[in-house]
């Protein structure tokens, strides 16, 4: 069993049963006349079953997290001898991605896993697949209507900001007139607004803390460095920084080092391997990162396989997979970083 399976419990937040038990323990519903009682222990089902062809379509992997999404999907599919993966090249052009998904529909794949470049723009092609009898796992960026997918699985952007703000709040709760700043992602994305809202809501619980500055970057190393340099120049004194994205955080850390600043703590976002390594070394400003786990793509493959084989999820009383699964944005710091290190993406 891979580390992705054994660590699946990391992904599903405060659920009492780990996702490893839920997803690896899929149970067959083939015999509709003899369904097990709700409290029956389902049989584990990593052993081969009906062959399932899964179509996977995502945006262009021009970012560490998106590349990790593709790698997680590919590697997870290889674990199953009864799964074939049809993966598209990936595109940030919505028309091109729609065309790629329509090709998969025409190939009559059994299940589709789609991480849309733009959820709103790709809603119609999700509906087209569902109406063609091809169930869709909508990964992360959600379509406009639940009619366009059978199951949504993705990260918790609001929770990401909430947990980052709470971590910082607890670290600074004994400090009078504490000042924090925020290095956000791309402001025209709903996910960025959700992360900021969660962060701001968390800080409301700490009246001693004031957010004094915010800059939006572009999820790139270059933008992270440039925007962080601007923040450092404008803010001669602050106590904490929350950076939404570990990729742009690489650039932010460069700017911090160049400025010779070490008088604050930094919390990152997403779960890059470089961030985990810096947290473990504990010799710089980066003290924690808040997860947005790309292992959701591996879980999406598990869910697609279960759908294709008409199975539910072991550990739940229901006979069907859930309609939505929101992953938990755990805070990783030096106390638990070793546990999460195998999930870090490059």
TrEMBL record:
Location of the Periplasmic binding protein domain: 54-309
Keyword field: Signal
Transmembrane segment boundaries: none
UniProt subcellular location: Cell envelope
Segments for region (Disordered): 28-51
Signal peptide: 1-24
Gene3D superfamilies: 3.40.50.2300
Origin superkingdom: Bacteria
Protein's UniProt keywords contain Translocase: no
GO MF term (any one): carbohydrate binding
Single GO cellular component term: cell envelope
Family: Belongs to the bacterial solute-binding protein 2 family.
Name of the protein in its database record: Sugar ABC transporter substrate-binding protein
């Amino acid at each position: 069993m891979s580390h992705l399976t054994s660590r699946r419990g990391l992904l599903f937040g405060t659920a009492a049963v780990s996702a490893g038990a839920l997803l690896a323990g899929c149970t067959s519903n083939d015999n509709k006349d003899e369904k097990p009682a709700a409290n029956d222990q389902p049989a584990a089902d990593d052993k081969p079953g009906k062959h399932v062809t899964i179509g996977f379509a995502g945006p262009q992997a021009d970012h560490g997290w998106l590349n990790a999404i593709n790698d997680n999907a590919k590697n997870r599919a290889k674990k199953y001898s009864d799964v074939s993966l049809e993966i598209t090249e990936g595109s940030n052009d919505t028309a091109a991605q729609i065309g790629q998904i329509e090709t998969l529909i025409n190939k009559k794949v059994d299940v589709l896993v789609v991480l849309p470049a733009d959820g709103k723009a790709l809603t119609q092609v999700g509906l087209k697949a569902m109406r063609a009898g091809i169930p869709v796992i909508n990964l992360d960026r959600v379509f406009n209507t639940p009619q366009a997918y059978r199951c949504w699985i993705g990260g918790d952007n609001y929770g990401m900001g909430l947990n980052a703000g709470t971590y910082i709040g607890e670290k600074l709760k004994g400090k009078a007139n504490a000042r924090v700043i925020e290095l956000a992602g791309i402001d025209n994305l709903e996910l960025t607004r959700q992360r900021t809202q969660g962060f701001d809501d968390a800080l409301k619980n700490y009246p001693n803390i004031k957010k004094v500055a915010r800059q939006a970057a572009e999820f790139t190393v270059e933008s992270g460095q440039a925007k962080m340099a601007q923040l450092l120049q404008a803010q001669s004194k602050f106590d904490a920084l929350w950076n939404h994205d570990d990729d742009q955080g690489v650039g932010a850390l460069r700017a911090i080092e160049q400025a010779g600043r070490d008088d604050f703590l930094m919390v990152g976002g997403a779960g890059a391997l470089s961030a985990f390594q810096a947290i473990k070394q504990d010799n710089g400003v980066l003290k924690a990162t808040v997860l947005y786990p790309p292992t959701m793509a591996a879980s999406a493959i598990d869910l697609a396989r279960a759908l294709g084989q008409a199975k539910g999820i072991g550990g739940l009383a229901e006979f069907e997979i859930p309609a939505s699964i929101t992953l938990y944005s755990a805070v990783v710091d030096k106390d638990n970083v070793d546990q999460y290190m195998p999930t870090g993406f490059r």
